[in-house]
Amino acid sequence: MTxxxxxxxxxxxxxxxTVKDLELIFETAENFKExxxxxxxxxxxxxxxxxxxxxxxxxxxxxxxxxxxxxxxxADVVNFSASSSSVKxxxxxxxxxxxILSMKVDMVVMRHPAPGAxxxxxxxxxxxxINAGDGTHEHPTQALLDAFSMREAVGELAxxxxxxxxxxxxxxxxxxxxxxxxxLGASVRVCGPPTLIPRHIEKLGVEVSYNLRETLAWCDIANxxxxxxxxxxxRYFPSLREYSQHFGINKAILDSLDKEIVxxxxxxxxxxxxxxxxxxxxxxSIILQQVENGVAVRMAILYLLAAKR
Length: 309
Hints:
By secondary structure, the protein is α/β, with parallel strands linked by helices. Helix content is 39%, strand content 15%.
């Protein structure tokens, strides 16, 4: 493993990581990818380190991915699901955290519906904090595993064209992806209905398009986001059927392009809405590689942060 170190004690957002940090994470993840493909998948790197997974929002895939990463590194793992905890009885975030810290936790992986909650934590407690998604703000580990998967598929990202499709407005994945891809030198375009594209997003250095076919023809990689109905308090488009007709990606559209593009999706997939099964399961798709890479990238982040302790 490399002797270099991250520039930060926490992973709160891509915004706070340097390009050198990104390269170090990818390099370390490559090493861990070899580890998790061995017959014996465990390494003792985090033995005697206690990691608390604090999930104040439902999550299956991210939580399992982190838990697997922690166990592969031999960490002691404490799982805390707020929906079934004292938070329902009115306990504050700081109370919850202080109680968990009194159990001598070294690292905290946190998902929270309030933007900025992991940063608040980082200011108040001594543990290393990893943001596993805060509201509609950032989801840095998803962007890192996405970029790692893109690099595996197409090589260096400088000069590559990446399109992010779908519900950009409610997506923390989109924001983290934009920050990450811009730092790595890619050109980024977002595409979706006007109601699901945030105002002034061009200020982040991205192009905006409302034309699915034209954007697919432009890009090398299509990262397709799901419609986040659970975050939508009003109707942003007439119906899922209409969304699918205008912005759903199917095999016929891909076959009509004069080139092959890489298809990605952070999951969970709404099959038949933003993407059809024949696209999700096609040779174009690296969706399952993203899942595998998620464990390796999260192992890398945990390992590198543990070195900062």
